[in-house]
Structure formats: C-alpha cells, structure tokens
Amino acid sequence: MSHFPSIIPRPLELEGGDGNFQLSRDTSFYTNTPLAQNAVAWFVDEFYRQSGISLRQSETKTSGTVALRFQNDLAPENYILSIQNEGIEIRASEARGFLYGAVSLFQCIPFDSPGAVGQWQLPALEIRDAPRFGWRGLMLDSARHFQPVSWVKKFIDTLVLHKFNVLHWHLTEDQGWRIEIDKYRALTSVSAWRKHSRVGHELKASTTDFDGRPHGGFYSKAELREVVAYAAARGVTIVPEIEMPGHAKAVLAAYPELSCTGGPFEVETKWGIHDDVFCAGNDDVIRFLEDVLEEVLEIFPSQFIHVGGDECHKTRWKECLKCQARIKHENLADENELQSWFVRHFDTFLTARGRRLIGWDEILEGGLAQNAAVMSWRGEEGGIAAARAGHDVVMAPNQQTYLDYYQSANRASEPLAIGGDLSLAKVYAYEPIPESLTPEEAKHVLGGQGQLWTEYMPRPEIVEYMAYPRACALAETLWSPAQPRAFDEFLPRLKAHLRLLDRLHLNYRQVD
Ligand code: ACM
Ligand code: ZN
User: Fold this and answer.
1) C-alpha closest to that of 22 among 105, 168, 120
2) Of 181, 176, 302, 180, which is closest to residue 237 (Cα–Cα)?
3) Is 508's C-beta closer than 6 angstroms to any atom of ligand 1?
4) How many other CB atoms are there within 10 angstroms of residue 122's CB atom?
5) What is the pLDDT of residues 369-404, one digit of tens each?
C-alpha cells in the first residue's frame, strides 16, 4: 500500500493524485523569489538531519526539482503544494507561506518506510492550505525553571513543524529574572538566582521541603537576539512577557526600594502567589519598568509586548502611603483601579513606541485602553468580556490549554504536576470561539495558545513531555477548519506523526 501522508495540522484541502515523486539525493530546489530562501534553508537542514543528504539548489527548473514560486493572490501564510511524478511545486506569496509548504512537504516524506533510504516515494497530491487563526502559540515559562538556549531552539523547531507562529516567552517571575538588562545589572547578578527550590507539591509541602541546590540563569542580549533571529527565520514571532505589577519578587530581591515596604526580600523559593509586588505609588517603579521595556523593545521586534498583569495581590497597596496617595491624586476608586491606572500607563508607553500591549485577563478589571489585547486564562469569561468590549483576544483558558495540567486521570503514573486534568482528547475538542460571541465579536479572537508553566517541569525533557502530543492537537485546533473534526480521525494520523517526533528525539508522552 502506498504511504499516505499524516500531515498535522490537517490541511484545509488535500486531494490525492496518481503516481509518485521520487525524492533522492539528486533532487534539487529551484526558486524564482528570495521570499522562499528561508523555506529552502529550513527544508535542506531538516532533510540533512534525517538523511545525511545535502540537497542542492539549481539555477533552472528541470524535471525532478522542487520549485518554489511566487503567487501574489495567496494570503501571507497560505500555500499550495503540488506533488506530481515530474516534480514538486510550492506556491506562496510570503516567507511563511513557503515555509509552511516546505513543512507539509517534509511531513510527506516516508522516512520510516523499509528500504526507502536514498529513494523516497512521495504520493502525488495537491494541498491548498490556509490557517484558521493568525495567533497560534505556545507559552514557555523560562522563569520558574531556566532552559538553555540550545533547547529553546529545539523547542522552536517543534513549533515550526506544527505551524505555530508565536512563542510567548515568560521571562520574569517571583522565582527568577531571565533577561539581561544593561541599566540594571543586579537583575542578572541577583534576581536570576534562587538559593533552592521547592520539592514535591507546593500545597502539600512542609517548610523544609527544598532541594538544597541553587537554581538560575539568564539569557544575554546576544543570546536573545540569536533566538529572535532563529525564530524569525522559521516564521515564529517571540512575544516577550515582562510581569507587572505582580510576580515581581525576584526584582524586589535586588531592588527592594521598588516595593511598598522596602523589604528585604530574597528571590522566591516557593511556588504560588506572593504579596510583595511593585509599588504602584512610586514613580521610581514606573521609571524602572520604562527603562526595562526600552531595552526589551530593542531586542524583540514583535508587535505585541506582554506585561503580565495576573494575580497581583493588593494587600501591600492597601497599607502603603504612596499607593494610597496615588489613588487619591489620580481620583481612583480603589486598588483595582490603581492596577488599571498602572496598566494604562504602560499601554500609552508601548503605543507611543508603535507596539501593542497584551496582558492576562485581570487587566480588564477597572477598564482598559482600546488598543490593548487580552489573554483569557481564567476560562473563557475574560475573553468574552474583552471581545464584547472591542478588544482583541488570545484564548488561553486554563481548563483546555494549560499544558502543565495532568494528561491522565491516573496521576500516579505521571510526573508530578500542578493539578488539573487535561487529556489529549480534551485539548483536541477545544473550540477557541466561544459560542456566546456574535460573528462580529468573534473577529476579535486572534487565536489561542497552550501554556507551559514550569513550576513542576525542572528539566527540558519534562517540558517536552507535557507539551507533546497535546500541542499537536492544539496546533490542529488553531490551524485547521472547525469542521469536519473528529478525534477518531486525528488519532491514527497522530500515531504516524509520532514516528517523526521520535526521529526528532522529542520526549513526548505516549498515546494511550
Ligand atoms: C496565570 O496562570 N497566572 C496566567
Ligand atoms: Zn506602594
């Protein structure tokens, strides 16, 4: 039986043809547009990794080539892939379209078929493909546990393979600051390191359950620029997250004068939510965060900049003279409006620099500038309210997209996780457009993303285990049409696809 490709995410239209194309070491690439260069480079690299064969580029289109051609009536991420006996053609109008055509082509290669080495038969077919959503993301928390740059690149490789186009990079937390800032050197000498970490589950832990080992690390500016460029060449935009006004204890350990009480503090060693946050009444805090963001903007060219905004306890603000003075001076009703004032300040700051603010759904409380976008994590409610109020929304509801939740009800057989229950089937069943939105409101849903909070993922291979294969299901949710859609149809394709993930040495969870 001829191999039929198990492309994930499933293309919009796929039609089988007659015959096969023989891919071999003599196959070469031909292109008439520089827009296809990243796609060719990506394919040649990945193919070399799998086969040890370096495919060449040719100056002319002959029989047996893979031709990448510009077609201007295609949307930027759309592509047409045509495999025929005589040759292969990928058509697109922009770099991402060519790249996604190359990714689908790569998934058509039967690397595992017996006797195929050096001579692969690709079934004739025609694919016309287009994504359902423009924001297809995964969020990586490199703050609770630090991952090396080499692995972050590997993680980006897995995004490309599933046509994700956003890496939301969570770089600051109570437990660690991970980004080099020239103006505030103590952020990397002090805030990037904690003396030890919790072992076992935080909610069950005793006061002495720590691992006795320092943990930390940070990304230098040169490394961050390298990762940004690596991602960009692969169609992935990195959206950095700098948390404010909560989740800031690592900063306060280095700069206690930015808190309400003056400290002292240490970089947090326990998980959970902590009372000490940035003082919203202190102008030095505003200046500090503006300085940090100026340097962040130099590194990350993304349209959106994430400012966190979640889980900011107001305990300290209630007792702080400076915070209370700000509430009075700005005519604010309460501490929620103080947070809203704070977020608006940074919305104005980012907008003036040609960027857009995005934050977790708490930023809606107390009002929000129209240009700001909302990431809905406490279920869909924040997303619904935001879309109705005319804000753009990225859906990240915990019950369906928190990839730090357990993958099986049989918890004893799984690595320790934060809690929850999120099977592969449940991720696959997720529908990002809430039923209660009108079609007009639904236009504000930019897409969605999966969350990898790493409190309980101390090593990169555990991040891989929690991410995959659930991220394969999410990729299909975000790329493929809403209908038809059936888990029973997805599962056999996924099982074939897992052989490719084996080849990429990805530590995914086995499918039941
Ligand atoms: C969140 O999970 N605190 C966004
Ligand atoms: Zn204060």
Assistant:
1) 120
2) 302
3) no
4) 21
5) 889 999 999 999 999 999 999 999 999 999 999 999
CATH architecture of 135-487: Alpha-Beta Barrel (3.20)
The alpha carbon of 254 and the centre of ligand 2 are apart by a number of angstroms equal to: 17
Give the global pTM. Answer: 0.97
CA distances from 7 to 199, 479, 506 (A): 40, 12, 18
**Ligand 1 contact, 360 CB (< 6 A):** yes
Residue pointed to by tokens 């903007």: 297
Most informative mutation of 307, 313, 377, 402 for ligand 1 (most atoms within 8 A of CB): 377
Q: Where are the domains of the chain?
A: 13-129, 135-487
Largest CA distance in the chain: 77
Where do runs of H (alpha helix) occur along 307-459?
315-319, 321-329, 335-352, 381-388, 398-401, 424-428, 439-442
C-alpha angle 308/300/158, rounded to 5°? 85
Residue minimizing CA distance to atom 1 of ligand 1: 310
CATH topology of domain 13-129: Chitobiase; domain 2 (3.30.379)
Q: Which ligand is nearest to the CA of 284?
A: 2
pLDDT tens-digit map of 225-271: 999 999 999 999 999 999 999 999 999 999 999 999 999 999 999 99
User: Which bound ligand lies closest to the C-alpha atom of 282?
Assistant: 2
